[in-house]
Amino acid sequence: MLLPKRFRKRVTARISPISIDECIPTRSESIWQRPDVRIAVIVLVVITLLAIFAPLVAPYDPDLQNFRNRNKPPTLDHLCGTDYYGRDVLSRVIYGARVSLAIGFLATAFAMLIGVTLGVSAGFLGGRLELVVMRFVDVMMAIPMIITGLLMVAALGSGFQTLIVAIGISMTPRLIRLARAPVLVIKQREYIQAARALGLPNRIIIFSHIIPQVVPPLIVIATLQVCHAIVIEASISFLGLGIQPPMSSWGGLLKEGLRNLPSAPWISLTAGVVLTITVIVLNILGDALRDSLDPRLRGRIRAQ
Amino acid sequence: MNLDKQVPALLRVENLQKYFQVRKGWLGRKIQTLKAVDGLTFDLRRGETLGLVGESGCGKTTAGKTILRLYEPDGGRVVFDGHDVVGASEKQMLALRRQMQIVFQDPYDSLNPRKTVEQALGEPMAYHRIVERRRARERVAELLSLVGLPVACMNRYPHEFSGGQRQRIVIARALCLGPQFIVCDEAVSSLDVSIQAQIINLLQDLQTQLALTFLFISHDLRIVKHISDRVAIMYLGKIVELGRTEEIYAHPLHPYTQALLSAIPVADPSNQPERIILSGDVPTPTRLPKGCRFHTRCWLKEEICARVEPGFDAVSDDHYVMCHFSRSGKVTR
Amino acid sequence: MTKYILLRVVYLFLTAFAVLTIVFFALRVLPGDPVYAVLGGEAPPEIVEQTRHELGFDRPLYEQFAIYLSSFIQGDLGVSLQSKRPVAEMIAMMLPHTVLLALAAIATGLIIGVPLGVMAAVKRNGWFDSLSRIIGVSFIATPPFFVAIILLLVFGFWIGAFPIVGAGEWNQPWDILHALILPALALGIPKAAHMMRFTRSYMLEVLNEDYIRTARAKGLRERVVVFTHALKNALIPVVTILGNQLGQVIGGAVLIETVFTRPGMGRLVVEAISGRDFPVVQGTIVVFSFFVATSNMLVDLAYGLIDPRVRYR
Question: C300: pLDDT confidence band, cut at 50, 70 and 90?
Fold first, then answer.
């Protein structure tokens, strides 16, 4: 009997074997067809290039003070106005992009490193290690991320490297959970047991079978975490505990702008708009990449 | 094949136990013990195939994996070729692993989708230093032709193969360390019937060529009859009957075996023996019945069955039954 | 069920205890000497030693912890190193402001987000859906403190309709409410975008279910179908994300309070951390985590009340 066309399609979809292991982005071409993704990529590339080539692109030296030109509104000379010390806001925002992007990506990378190490070993080895690590994660998740970050900064001191470590550590519990979840699935597969039966030690099983499957989708997920990291960095600097002046950062500019809000709103607005655009763009990209993951894994990770 | 009793046992399993802790309740405080394998005893002679049969959930797969120490046994002994498996150190175990291999049920689950055939076969050989690095490819090619696959598929990924082809790859991988003994854990159950026959033939060819010993775990009584020299019937973690294949299939002595065998369809329906329908459910392995573990479903049940667990007695040479009435004639139909 | 609740409460206290332990030891193991924070960097060594002794920082760690714990259980959270006031009293003064702000923000998020999500789902792929998606994507990622700065600038400074500093006195409810509106919006708008998204996707899922088709086939009016049949079921998952949201909102409150110069737990903890005021840091973080854990627990329990399929063992 011939099934109606609609049903036929469903039936084949159900029996075609979809393996959870094939959870690398499988529909990457279709992501590219989305206009929002294209715009997001272009914007992100532009911001990144601006950050990298800041000395070439920035119209002024970001630290150059000019007391005759204090708190001047945007003009053709200073497209985004000047601040209290007469420094060019646009140049400071461009230089701030270096700090924000670098800390965002490096802190995420740091958190990935620790998170994958702990998450994979907890998930794979199980037992007491898993119990301790996961209880610790539960507890840490009860503290808002920003508070953990502040605490770490207060303890380690403020500076570029310590901010990376502090933000990285506060992001780690989430990444441990994200890394462990797929390991629990993969470790049940028969090819892992086969590897054991062949006498391969845990070290080889982890590096040759588990990590190559867990890490690619996690890197995709990590793009979403980068925007968390950037927001936390901006928040910490905004509260005055992060990047210290005169070094320029978006959070620091927002803080400085808040102090001069009625007289020079362009400081806060420029920094805030650029920060927001960056975060939105990363969010769009992260969402799109996540949607392109294997549907079975997607649910698992979204649930976190 | 030499089935003489004088042939020394390659594998001896004595009173093997594997219990799982099942956590129930919030915080997992209530712990129940699931006795998946509860006192398994048998010998496996060099070069023979022993069929291990039972319903799903009777512990046969767990038994296979526990023998290879994929699960740590909770009691009992496993002796392979004179070496103690249960107490083996990591180093000793590594050497034993070369001798004992396993083929799993699901060919879609037992190959890493990210590894080519060459990597899947080469990785264990490299770790065990079976061959020199520059000869590794040759060896993989050898193994592939041994299992009837073209050498050209070396660089392909598992998803490019059919189920039967995948199972051949899995068998090649099991052979790559040159084992003497292979556990075939439902090795053909998930395949189409025509493919099943091919794989069975392949296994039999390999057995003669390489002098392999098989523990063939299956729920399919017809396949087991075809491939096995001896058959063990398992019920709730224990073997209830063990003997030569012809003898078990012709004169089953345990009521459970009789029930199982009566369920095999035969070619001529008019010749179909009366089907024994077991009443009652399989007891949960967390709460095994006292006495004989089959008494809750047995039609021969008497008062003693609920009290005393019968011994595993030899009724004739090489035929063992765990039933109080194995000698009484009551069982024979 | 009672047993389940009881166990969850026990778990809650265990979490709070664990947070306390971690924070206590983290503060003392990590570099940073509170004594210098109290005295300033230039104090002569004998005064430093004397202060250290008075504050009990020269005792072994486990002893300090035992002393702290025993008084903690009696409700004594110690005394602030900076202001010398009891920490419990400081928290009692600040906590209501933060809780009020967090609840107002969640309420804002629900009131704006859920109806928009329902509309977007019902008019799927229409212009409203597209518009809401663009707005959603923009606001979901916008840091609340930037929203706060814009609101402060526009409504506080330029229009002047709302106070720019403080939270009002408790005996002036109108002032409190007046001062609450901008901060609640700042925190609530990004949350609204979040909830709009969730509501939309769950509504779409529910609207595809067979029982909705049945309801339509029965001839029920579309409004009845959407609101009584679909929304009720779509809200269940929305409730479950509330717990998670409350945690984030409380974290966001730290910054919002700074922008609006409001009294609250956020300001308290930021000042304590930068001043290495150990007792205040410990007290505030424990209260924070207690809140997050409690809200998670309440949402889990509420889930069971809304969804009759959920049974606790």
Answer: confident
Pair B205, B35: CB distance under 8 Å: no
Of A20 and A109, the structure prediction assigns the larger pLDDT to A109
Query: The tokens of A299 are what?
Result: 């649910």
Answer for the pair B245, B228: CB distance below 8 angstroms, yes or no. yes
Q: Map out the domains of chain C with their CATH numbers.
A: 15-73 (no CATH), 87-306 (1.10.3720.10)
* Residue of B22, B23, B24, B26 to mutate, testing the C interface (most C Cβ within 10 Å of its Cβ): B26
Instruction: Please give the residue of chain B at the shortest CA–CA distance from C6.
Output: B26
**Nearest-CB residue to C273 (from A143, A154, A261):** A154
Query: For A213, which residue in chain B has the nearest alpha carbon?
Result: B114
From the CA of A57, how many Å to the nearest CA of chain B? 44
Question: Mean pLDDT for chain C?
Answer: 83
Average pLDDT of the residues in A249-264: 87
pLDDT for residue A9 is more than 60: no
ipTM of the complex: 0.84
User: Does A150 contact chain C (CB < 8 Å)?
Assistant: yes
Average pLDDT over residues B97-106: 92
Q: Which tens digit of pLDDT belongs to each residue from C38-54? A: 666 667 777 777 777 77
Whether the CB-CB separation of A223 and A282 falls below 8 Å is answered with: yes
Residue B6 is predicted with a pLDDT of: 57
Give chains near C: 3+ CB pairs under 8 A.
A, B
pLDDT over 70, % of chain A: 86
Q: How far apart are CA B330 and CA C291, in angstroms?
A: 71
Structure confidence at residue C308 as a pLDDT band (50, 70, 90): low
Task: Supply the pTM of this predicted model.
Answer: 0.80
Question: Per-residue DSSP letters for B115-177?
Answer: S-HHHHHHHHHHHHT-S-GGGHHHHHHHHHHHTT--GGGGG--GGGS-HHHHHHHHHHHHHTT
**Å between A18 CA and nearest CA of chain B:** 10
DSSP for C6-45, please give it.
Answer: HHHHHHHHHHHHHHHHHHHHHHHHSS--HHHHHH-TT--H
Q: How far is B56 from chain A (nearest CA, A)?
A: 18
Q: Which two tokens stand for residue A214?
A: 């867990």
The whole-number pLDDT of residue B84 equals 92
Burial B238-259, CB ≥16 within 10 A → b, else e: bbbbbbbbebbbebbbbbbbbb
User: What would the pLDDT profile of B139-175 be if each residue is shown by its tens digit?
Assistant: 999 999 999 999 888 888 988 899 899 999 999 999 9
| CA distance readout (Å), C251 to A180, C140, C165 | 25, 16, 20
Task: Tell me the β-bridge partners of C86.
Answer: C79
Strand partners, C234: none
For A104-146, give the DSSP string: HHHHHHHHHHHHHHHHHHHHHH-HHHHHHHHHHHHHHHTS-HH
**Cα Rg of chain B, angstroms:** 21
Contact B27 C7 (CB under 8 A): yes
C105-134 pLDDT, tens per residue? 999 999 999 999 988 888 888 888 888 888
The CA distances from residue B53 to A154, B185, B261, C215, in Å, are 65, 11, 11, 52
Q: CA angle at residue A304 from A288 to C146, to 5 degrees? A: 65
Phi-psi map region of B231: left, alpha, beta (phi>0 left; psi -120 to 50 alpha): beta
For C15, which of A36, A139, A227 is closest by C-beta distance?
Answer: A139
pLDDT, greater one: C74 or B207: B207
Of the candidates A245, A244, A252, the one whose C-alpha atom is nearest the C-alpha of residue A270 is A252
Residue C146: list chain A partners with CB under 8 A: 254, 268, 272, 275-276
CA distance C248 to C195: 13
Nearest CA in chain B to C7: B26
Chain C interface includes B29 (CB < 8 A): no
Q: Given the structure tokens 């993989």, which residue do they identify? A: B140
Tell me the nearest-neighbour CA distance from A4 into chain B, angstroms.
27
